[in-house]
Structure formats: structure tokens, C-alpha cells
UniProtKB/TrEMBL annotation:
UniProt KW keywords: NADP, Oxidoreductase
Keyword NADP annotated: yes
Family: Belongs to the ketopantoate reductase family.
Coiled coil: none
InterPro entries on file: 6-PGluconate_DH-like_C_sf (IPR008927), 6PGD_dom2 (IPR013328), Ketopantoate_reductase (IPR050838), KPA_reductase (IPR013752), KPR_N (IPR013332)
GO cellular component, one term: mitochondrion
Protein name per the record: Ketopantoate reductase C-terminal domain-containing protein
Domain (Ketopantoate reductase C-terminal) ranges: 457-606
Native species: Verticillium longisporum (Verticillium dahliae var. longisporum)
Signal sequence segment: none
Isomerase in keyword set: no
Domain of life: Eukaryota
Taxonomic path: Eukaryota, Fungi, Dikarya, Ascomycota, Pezizomycotina
Length: 622
């Protein structure tokens, strides 16, 4: 963390606290809530621990305050009332209790402590600057946005997560029109400044910074987990023990066996002839669960179907203790890989598998949000990771099916819709091999799949991204079904949707105009696609996006968004792959683009806030 950032964040925090009247100053519960927002896994035990030591923290703070105030006035002014002590206070609820005690001892044992010594000691604790920013943004979003309402946080012990009660007058004021929110935005703008320092999004910069060799991975089966299952696992469930060349090229690996994984795998299994299918799970325990009932279950219209005949593996760098030891794809290349993980896990998993991907491999992404390998970043990724050899062919799927979990390896196909499959970036051998996987997905029963042109797929993903950027976070914040967002054609909620759409439209207009889009439009000109740049600019105007959103919103009005399901289950959401994509793309294309309301959505969702519609007040027009 840069010292300048440290000081600026501390100053923001200090200013905000000074702005509050005494009745609104935070108490121990308020501060423990703010601190708990920085815990990635907000378990009940962790929250209870914060409560248990919060009073002790405040006692130590008072002790330090009394000690400093009892020294000469110059030292008191320098430490307690300066930016340094503001930095100290900002860190009091992000460091451990023992670290806090150590600082108290340091101050008492120092013959002449000064502000710079204190700042240096705090700085060396190396607390992540992002933690402080999350604390600040939560603090402002929940309290300072309306100073008439004092903080009053509590723990919802039934849900085992920290929860903020709904305020009746919480104000949502976009475009920096309220001073306390403007202070919070300053910390957001610092995050934007750091993004500007590197033109690459964080995921791509992480790839560039990683110089390690691709790991060797073992393919565990149930036989490697339990000796009881060893005998039954000596033969493949789909295909022969020693697969033929044809079986190898036809095999489809399904990475991620959540709701979409179950839908895709069971649909592919109904093809004739049935392709060999290997399910790939992310934890060893899932292999053990599979051994007790090696099947997938899916229900439609109240009728459940149990399907068997799947192979299953867990890919890890840990060598099995017993059973047959084998590597991923028998040490060769994966022919067909369908990625049905959460969006945040998709590319990291694929990047980890790059040792087993070559020019004959085909990878199809089936996530919400934009595939990260579209221009402008896909070629940069390929050039870095496949500098000495040809890359695989990258496909993407856009699906509108609604699938709900009914237990491990069990799903309900609640809303039957369709699937679009197309190319993102083709490898040198992308013709026949990529056609096979796309054809299987297009032919599979219940998926209603269709192969589409590259430009059409890109456009469909952008439109679905806009839908996800509006419906998912707003339903997560309002704790409502999708249709509730569109019940009123006027009012503060619809005005907020208009503002969010205007920000999204501005970013996407820049995307369409960017030179990297030329390759997509060039492909369209060489096909039967009617897409061109002017048509796209009109299609992604704010007016057209709203028309599209209202149509989709009506179709999915009875559904519960995936983000609200994640929030209720205490899982990580995909908001960084929805609204975060817009924010990152804006920083890449033009730092002057305003995505402040999408940034605030990210902060509120990630901090578990819920609001009431009556609390939304939009005071500016787009």
C-alpha cells in the first residue's frame, strides 16, 4: 500500500467522523459491524468474536486518547487531532486485538512518541488498502448518506451474517450530489486511479505477473478417495477402460457440476450416439458423495429423471495416496471442455489447465457476464500464455434457461428457454474440432441450442450483461423477485434504472467504437450477419437498452435472480463479472467515463446491504 493512499484514506475517514453530530457518532456495535464487512467469510463465529472484543478495543482507544491528551499539547495535537491519528483510528478495527494492545504498549513505553513513529508502526502492519475502502464505503452508504438516521447495526444470527436493517429514509443520490457520499466517492476514485495506473483489468494483469510454469495435475476418481469404490471404478462409466482414438476426441469434459453443469451434462447424455462425458468437480468430498449415488437428477414440470453413465474426476496438483494414478486427459490434451463454473472461477480454472490445452482443444464458456477473451483482451491473453504454441479455440454460450438447485447433483429445470453458441477466438485448428462441440450443444435435447455467428454472439452477450447489471444487483439489494423492479413505470426505482442504463450505454458505445471491435465487425461483413457499427450504436443507446430490459424483465418476472440466491446463501456473488466488467472497461477505454453508480452497487452488494424501495431517492437526471 502506498503511503499517500494510506494518508488519503485516513483523511477521508477522519473528515467523515468529524462531520457527524454526537448522536450519530458510531458506537461499539456500529464499528464491529463495519469491521465485520471486511471479513470475506462472515461466519457467525467471526462476527461473535468481533462483538466480544469490541468493548475492549474501545477501552484501549480511550486509554490511548487519555495518555496522549495527558502529554504536552504539541504532541496531543500532532497525534490525536492530526491525520496520523485518523489513520490510527481507521485501522483500529482492521487489526487484531493483540496488535492493538501492542500499539498501546508501544506508546506507553516510548519516551517521546511522535506522529510519524505511530504512522510508520501502523503502516508496517500491512493492512490491505482495499479493506479500508470497503469499510469506508459501507460506512458512508449506510450512515452518512442520511445523517438524520444514526447507525444502528445488528447481527442476524439466523442467517449467520451481518445484516443492516432497512432504513425508511435512506437516500440514494447519484452523481456526487451529497457531501458525505462525495467523501465515499473519493475513496472510490482512488481505486479508479489505481486501475488507471495499469491499463489492464486485474485478472489480465495477474496473468502477466504470473511467471510460474503451468502445474501438473492429477485426475482423481472415486477410487482414489475410498478403497470401497476402487473395484467399481476400474472401468469407465462412459467408454472403455482403454479408450479408442475416437472416444478420446468425442469425450466432453464438464468443468463445474452446479445447476448449469447438471443441465448441460444430462442434456448431452440424451444424444444419440451418446458422447463420453466426464464431470469435473472442485473438491475431493464431492467424489465421496458421488460414490454413494453415482447419478445426476433433473426435474421438469414435477417429473424427476435420474441419469447415470457419467465419469467423474477431481483435478488437483495433489498426488493420490492409493488407487490408479493418472493425469488430466491421460497427460495429453483435453479435446472438448465445457466450463459451467461461476464466472469468477472460469478463467482462473482454464488458466490453470493450460498445460492440457493445445490447438486441437475446444473450450466453451457457459457463464453469466462477458467472456473475458473477447477483444480487446483475448489476443493479449493468448499471446502471453500461448507464446510458443498455438492456442485452443474459445467458444461462448449465452443461455436464458432457469435452473434451480434441489440438492447436490440435483437440479430443477424451472424455466425452459434457449442457448446460443458461437466462437470468441478460433485457434488454428478451430474448424472441425470446434464444430463438434458446438454441434453437440446445438443438438442436445432440452437445451434448444443454436449456433450463431461471432458478431451475433458478442452482441447477445453484451445485451445479457446489461440485463444482469440491472436486475441482479437491484433484486439483491431490494430482496425481491425480478418482476418487482418493473411494476411501476415511474418513480425513484425506475429513475435509478434509467441512470444505471445511461452509464452502461456510455461505456458500451465506447466499446463499439474501439478499434479492437473491428475484428468482430470484419467477421460480420464476411458473413450473412447484418450487424454494423452504426446499428450497434443505436442498439446500445439508453432508450433501446431500456426497451430490451423491460421485455426481458417481463419474461423473467417470476424468477429469483442468481445474485439474490447467492446473497441469501452467503455465497460470493458475480457482481464483479457484471457491473465490475463495466467499471473495468470504462477505466480501460476512457478514464472520464462515469460509472459511479455501478461502483456503488458493487460496494453495497458486496457488503450485504439491503434497502427498501421507498429509501431510494434519485435527485439528478441523466
Amino acid at each position: 500500500m502506498e503511503k499517500e493512499n494510506f494518508m488519503q484514506i485516513a483523511s477521508n475517514f477522519y473528515d467523515a467522523v468529524q462531520d457527524q453530530d454526537n448522536a450519530s457518532k458510531p458506537n461499539s456495535k456500529d464499528l464491529s459491524f463495519v469491521a465485520s464487512c471486511m471479513i470475506p467469510t462472515r461466519t457467525r463465529a467471526e462476527v461473535d468474536l468481533l462483538y466480544s472484543d469490541c468493548e475492549r478495543r474501545l477501552e484501549i482507544i480511550k486509554s490511548i486518547h487519555d495518555y496522549v491528551s495527558g502529554t504536552d499539547s504539541g504532541l496531543a495535537t500532532e497525534i490525536w487531532n492530526s491525520v496520523q491519528i485518523a489513520a490510527f483510528w481507521a485501522f483500529l478495527f482492521t487489526i487484531s486485538l493483540q496488535q492493538l494492545v501492542d500499539i498501546e504498549i508501544f506508546l506507553r513505553n516510548s519516551s517521546s512518541p511522535d506522529g510519524s513513529q505511530l504512522l510508520t508502526r501502523l503502516y508496517r502492519l500491512q493492512v490491505d488498502v482495499n479493506q479500508i475502502e470497503r469499510m469506508l464505503n459501507t460506512f458512508f452508504a449506510m450512515s452518512s448518506m442520511n445523517k438524520q438516521v444514526p447507525l444502528n447495526m445488528h447481527v442476524n444470527r439466523d442467517r449467520n451474517v451481518v445484516k443492516q436493517p432497512t432504513y425508511s429514509t435512506m437516500a440514494w443520490r447519484p452523481h456526487r450530489v451529497l457531501k458525505p457520499l462525495a467523501i465515499a466517492r473519493r475513496s472510490m476514485s482512488m481505486a479508479s486511479a489505481r486501475r488507471m495506473a495499469s491499463p489492464n483489468p486485474q485478472w489480465l494483469q495477474s496473468v502477466f505477473d504470473d511467471c510460474a510454469a503451468a502445474p501438473k495435475l492429477f485426475a482423481w476418481t472415486p477410487a482414489n478417495v475410498s478403497s470401497r469404490t476402487q473395484a467399481q471404478s476400474q472401468t469407465r462409466a462412459s467408454g472403455s477402460l482403454v479408450p479408442t482414438a475416437s472416444e478420446k476426441t468425442r469425450r466432453i469434459f464438464v468443468l463445474g457440476v452446479g445447476n448449469l453443469g447438471v443441465l448441460f451434462a444430462t442434456s448431452l447424455a440424451k444424444l444419440a450416439p451418446r458422447p463420453p462425458i466426464t464431470l469435473v468437480v472442485h473438491r475431493k468430498e464431492l467424489l465421496e458423495q458421488w460414490a454413494s449415488d453415482p447419478s445426476l437428477k433433473i426435474s421438469r414440470n414435477g417429473v424427476s429423471e435420474r441419469m447415470t453413465g457419467f465419469d467423474i474426476e477431481w483435478w488437483t496438483d495433489q498426488k493420490p495416496d492409493h488407487g490408479v494414478v493418472k493425469h488430466v486427459a491421460d497427460g495429453g490434451a483435453i479435446p472438448n471442455l465445457l466450463v459451467t463454473t461461476k464466472a469468477s472461477a472460469a478463467l482462473p480454472e482454464i488458466d490453470r489447465l493450460r498445460r492440457y490445452l493445445d490447438e486441437n482443444s475446444v473450450v466453451a464458456f457457459a457463464q453469466n457476464g462477458m467472456c473475458k477473451l473477447w477483444p480487446p483482451h483475448g489476443h493479449a491473453y493468448n499471446s502471453h500464455r500461448y507464446a510458443s504454441r498455438p492456442p485452443p479455440s474459445w467458444l461462448a454460450c449465452v443461455t436464458t434457461h432457469g435452473v434451480t438447485s434441489r440438492g447436490r447433483y440435483t437440479s430443477e429445470h424451472a424455466s425452459v428457454a434457449d442457448l446460443k453458441i458461437g466462437s470468441v477466438l478460433s485457434g488454428p485448428q478451430g474448424g472441425a474440432s470446434s464444430t463438434y462441440l458446438a454441434e453437440q450443444l446445438a443438438r442436445a435435447p432440452f437445451l434448444h441450442g443454436q449456433q450463431v455467428l461471432r458478431a451475433d454472439l458478442w452482441t447477445l452477450q453484451l445485451e445479457k450483461l446489461v440485463v444482469n447489471c440491472i436486475i441482479n444487483p437491484l433484486t439483491a439489494l431490494l430482496r425481491c423477485k425480478n418482476g418487482y423492479l418493473f411494476e411501476k413505470t415511474e418513480g425513484p426505482l425506475m429513475r435509478l434504472i434509467d441512470v444505471l442504463l445511461a452509464e452502461a450505454s456510455a461505456v458500451l458505445q465506447h466499446v463499439i467504437q474501439h478499434p479492437s471491435t473491428d475484428t468482430i465487425l470484419d467477421d460480420a461483413r464476411n458473413t450473412t450477419s447484418v450487424i454494423d457499427r452504426q446499428m450497434l450504436l443505436e442498439r446500445f443507446s439508453q432508450t433501446r437498452l431500456k426497451q430490451m430490459l423491460l421485455v426481458v424483465g417481463h419474461k423473467v418476472r417470476d424468477n429469483t435472480s442468481s445474485m439474490l440466491q447467492d446473497v441469501r446463501a452467503g455465497r460470493q456473488t458475480e457482481i464483479q463479472d457484471f457491473n465490475g466488467w463495466l467499471v473495468d472497461m470504462a477505466a480501460f477505454l476512457d478514464p472520464g467515463l462515469d460509472t459511479s453508480n455501478h461502483e456503488l452497487l458493487i460496494e453495497l452488494v458486496e457488503n450485504g446491504v439491503d434497502v427498501d424501495e421507498t429509501s431510494i431517492e434519485v435527485t439528478s437526471q441523466f
